[in-house]
Design goal:
The chain contains 13 helices and no strands. It is mainly alpha-helical. Helix 3 crosses helix 4 and helix 9 packs across helix 12.
Length: 223
């Protein structure tokens, strides 16, 4: 695998000079204190990621005020105990996207957050204590205990919530194939995800930048 500096040089061939590349890989979503984010904000971001998967994200964004109202401001303790009547109300609410499976997933994810809070104090505290460099393990945990939080959905949730997350986009996977990390331009197996974790963590340490920034750099290095 190339070094961090060598990959910056590759990206610079497509996106100007090294300084421009290093500026572009900044992570505007980063948060220094994940515990400062409320559980309601985490449920809100989780729901956005779930509803945006396979859908036009602009539609979700435009309807978001309706989502906030329909889901009681995403208070996990309230949403976790929504009744069958609440479910019927949501399925007929024109202010949101009326996808039954994704609405049900929001209720289940509220329960996931509530249960996590019982053990760790808050969902942010849970994320903050997860071992650095084990995003693969975190994704596996979320896929097991959350609802519709597999694959890229959970990765985008983590990134937009402020967690230092890499994303296995098409270009990132293509770059990792080029570097001999992956055998094919997808990363779905536990083994592949572990390889992604190790490679991105190594490049992060070399370059002194976040793992999210390495993920962006890999994508830029493709073209």
């Amino acid at each position: 695998m190339r070094t961090f500096d060598e990959i910056v040089d590759l990206a610079a061939q497509h996106h100007g000079d090294r300084a421009q590349v290093l500026q572009k890989i900044g992570n505007e979503h980063a948060r220094s204190d994940l515990t400062a984010v409320s559980d309601a904000e985490y449920l809100s971001q989780m729901t956005q990621a779930v509803f945006s998967a396979g859908f036009n994200w602009r539609v979700i964004q435009n309807k978001w005020p309706g989502f906030e109202t329909a889901f009681a401001g995403f208070d996990p303790h309230r949403v976790a105990f929504f009744s069958d009547e609440d479910m019927d109300r949501l399925l007929s609410d024109k202010g949101i996207v009326r996808n039954g499976q994704k609405i049900k997933a929001t209720l289940e994810n509220a329960r996931f957050i509530v249960e996590t809070k019982k053990e760790h104090g808050s969902f942010g505290a849970f994320l903050a204590q997860w071992p650095v460099g084990d995003q693969a393990g975190l994704l596996a945990h979320m896929a097991k205990h959350g609802s519709r939080l597999g694959g890229a959905t959970a990765q985008y949730f983590l990134r937009f919530s402020g967690y230092d997350a890499w994303i296995t986009s098409r270009d990132v996977c293509a770059a990792l194939v080029r570097e001999g990390v992956l055998d094919k331009p997808t990363a779905t197996s536990k083994t592949a995800m572990k390889k992604v974790d190790e490679a991105i963590s190594a490049l992060s340490q070399q370059g002194g930048v976040s793992r999210a920034s390495v993920s962006r750099l890999l994508a830029l290095s493709v073209g």
